[in-house]
Design goal:
136 residues; binds adenosine monophosphate; alpha+beta; 5 strands; binds zinc ion; five-stranded antiparallel sheet
C-alpha cells in the first residue's frame, strides 16, 4: 500500500523526517514546508492513495473526524481566528503531490491570504442544466 517513489509515503511512514504534530495507526499530521499561514499542516494517510477518488470510505470518514479534532486543538493552541480545510484532487484542481492529503489552514485576521474563486454568474437555465446533469 506504499509507493516507493512517493515523498508523502516516505514522510508518513517515517523514512524522511518531518515536523510531525500528530500520529495514529492510519495517519500522520505534519507541518507544511510551504505554509500559507502559521500552523498550516497536512493530514497524510500512511497508505498510498493518489487522491480522494481512491481513498477507502473508512479512511474518508476517519480523516474528517481527525480534521475536526485537529482544527479544534490547533485553534486553541495557535489562537487563530478561523480555519480552512482544503483538499485538492487532480492537476486542474491544484494538486501537486499525488498522495491524498488534507490541508489544515489556520486563519488569522489580516493574514493577507486569499483562498477563493471568482464567482461566475450563471443564468437560471444554466444552473438547471447542471442540475439535470447531476441528478437525472
Ligand atoms: P497540493 O497542492 O494540495 O498537492 O499540496 C501539496 C502541499 O505539500 C504544498 O502545500 C507543499 O508546500 C507541501 N509539501 C510538499 N512537499 C513537502 C514536504 N516534503 N514536507 C511538507 N510539506 C510539503
Ligand atoms: Zn504515497
Amino acid at each position: 500500500m506504499r509507493d516507493d517513489s512517493c515523498i508523502f509515503c516516505k514522510i508518513a511512514n517515517g523514512d524522511i523526517p518531518s515536523k510531525e504534530i500528530y500520529e495514529d495507526e492510519d495517519f500522520k499530521v505534519i507541518l507544511d514546508l510551504g505554509p500559507a499561514t502559521k500552523g498550516h499542516a497536512l493530514i497524510l494517510p500512511k497508505n498510498h492513495y493518489r487522491s480522494l477518488y481512491e481513498l477507502p470510505d473508512e479512511l474518508a470518514s476517519k480523516v474528517m473526524l481527525l480534521a475536526k479534532k485537529m482544527s479544534v486543538q490547533m485553534t486553541e493552541k495557535l489562537e487563530c481566528d478561523g480555519f480552512n480545510l482544503v483538499q485538492n484532487n487532480g492537476e486542474a484542481a491544484g494538486q501537486t503531490v499525488f498522495h491524498f492529503h488534507l490541508h489544515l489552514i489556520p486563519r488569522y485576521e489580516e493574514d493577507g491570504q486569499v483562498l477563493g474563486w471568482k464567482a461566475l454568474q450563471p443564468t437560471s437555465e444554466e444552473l438547471s442544466e447542471v442540475r439535470r446533469l447531476l441528478v437525472e
